[in-house]
Amino acid sequence: MPIINYVEFNGKEHAVDVAEGVSLMQGAMDNMIEGIIAECGGCGVCCTCHCMIDPQWAETAGAATKDESELLEILDTREENSRLSCQVRVTAAMDGMVVRLPESQY
Ligand code: FES
Questions:
Q1: pTM for this predicted structure
Q2: Given the CA of residue 37, which atom of ligand 1 is nearest to it?
Q3: In this structure, are residues 90 and 2 in contact, taking their beta carbons and an 8 Å threshold?
Q4: Which residues contact 47 (CB under 8 A, 6 or more apart)?
Q5: Is residue 88 in contact with ligand 1, taking CB distance under 6 Å?
Q6: Domains detected in the chain
Q7: 23 forms bridges with which residues in the sheet?
Q8: Could you give the angle at the alpha carbon of 21 between the alpha carbons of 15 and 22, nearest 5°?
Q9: Helix/strand/coil (H, E, C) string of the chain?
Q10: 84, 99, 104: which to mutate for ligand 1, most atoms within 8 A of CB?
């Protein structure tokens, strides 16, 4: 399984196995990683699963859809590499990916 490196806002790192096809959000929830709330359960409507993909992995993660991008616009904390973690499905190519979690979701 690919290893995803979640990094909390305070620098605390969690390297966890996440099965292919599972979302980055679910991977964090399954491993009890703090920093993702996911109020809508992954329906893509709440923005409480905001994460930042490390720039070197942005291309691997792919681009946000128009709907996702519009949702991200409501966040004050949006960055260029922001994504909704429930909308990113893990693939084998993501092994080692670094995903940062915003302070606003604690
Ligand atoms: S969990 Fe609600 S938008 Fe991702």
A1: 0.96
A2: 1
A3: yes
A4: 71, 72, 74, 75, 84
A5: no
A6: 3-105 (3.10.20.30)
A7: 89
A8: 50
A9: CCEEEEECCCCCEEEEECCCCCEHHHHHHHCCCCCCCCCCCCCCCCCCCEEEECHHHHHHHCCCCHHHHHHHCCCCCCCCCEEEHHHCECCHHHCCCEEECCHHHC
A10: 84
- Determine which residue's CA is closest to atom 3 belonging to ligand 1: 44
Q: Which tokens belong to 80?
A: 């260029």
Over the chain (106 residues), the average pLDDT of each successive run of 10 is: 97 98 98 96 96 97 96 95 98 98 94
